[in-house]
Amino acid sequence: MSTQTVRNRLKAYQLKARRPYTGTILLRRHRNNRRNWTRVHRRWALRQWNNVLFSDESRFCLQHGDGRRRVWRRRGERFANCCVAERDRFGGGSVMVWGGICGGTRTRLLVLNGNLTGIRYRDEILRPVVLPFLRRHGVGAILQQDNAPAHTSRVSRTFLQQNNVQVLDWPSKSPDLSPIEHVWDVLGRRVRERQNQPSNLQELAQALIAEWNNISPRIIRRFTSSMRRRCNAVYFANGGHTRY
User: Fold this and answer.
1) pLDDT (tens digit, 9 = 90+) per residue, 102-149?
2) pLDDT (tens digit, 9 = 90+) per residue, 141-161?
3) Best exposed site among 36, 56, 102, 218 by fewest CB in 10 Å?
4) pTM
């Protein structure tokens, strides 16, 4: 069978060459854990999800390139100054932040310098931010965190147990189940759309905090209320990848 015949058959069935979806590596144990978790939690009511504080860290680069920028040029002008988008190979540096959302509310955004260890996680995040937030929320508040080493360290687990903090068990390799991932997307877009773009890491940190505080409760509530749909999507995909 010739190559052209294959192309003709693909075209007849309206199949086109597209970029593959890039997702996390899911082994069989990951898929099984994700499906078993969603089988239990996909029947949770919205009031139960509104008691969950979804928390996470995210890193934002000073320079960002999404591959969508285009230039109009003639043949042979690929390397002309007006057709070259200069960008630092390592993104010009980055800022790591931590934040949490719960129902239609949010914690304050913390800027993290250096590596996050279990001790720093306890002293800079859990004790001053998470614990007061959960106590203000009232009875039934639950903390969600992923399985990062700082979160699962003995120091962090001991602190949470001593303060009677209920932690939501979380399946590995499951960013599509956490609504805060979409909040990070909103935050990144808003910083990139600012009229005065940050020129250094200090300005980037200030812009992130300002835009985080400007995210409306309606947007946060829209993401947290999607948990049942997320769970159903993972469940019916047998623990595989989803559109989230």
Assistant:
1) 999 999 999 999 999 999 999 999 999 999 999 999 889 999 999 999
2) 999 999 999 999 999 999 999
3) 218
4) 0.86
Residue 142 vs residues 55, 94, 136, 226: alpha-carbon distances, Å:
11, 30, 12, 17
Structure tokens at 63: 């320079």
Residue whose pair of structure tokens reads 């919205």 in the numeric block: 46
How far is the C-alpha of 115 from the C-alpha of 94, rounded, in Å? 13
Going by C-alpha positions, the residue among 128, 137, 174 that lies closest to residue 49 is: 137
Q: Which amino acid is at 153?
A: S
In the chain, what is the greatest distance between 2 CA atoms, to the nearest angstrom?
69
| DSSP for the chain, written as a single string | --HHHHHHHHHHTT----PPP------HHHHHHHHHHHHHHTT--HHHHTTEEEEEEEEEESS---S-------TT-TTSGGG-----TTTT-EEEEEEEEETTEE---EEE-S---HHHIIIIIIIIIIHHHHHHH-TT-EEE----HHHHSHHHHHHHHHTT-EEE---SS-GGG-THHHHHHHHHHHHHT-SS---SHHHHHHHHHHHHHHS-HHHHHHHHTTHHHHHHHHHHTTT-----
In single-letter form, the type of residue at position 94 comes to: S
Amino acid at 97: V
Instruction: Count CB-CB contacts under 10 A for residue 96.
Output: 16
Block residue for tokens 């905090």:
209
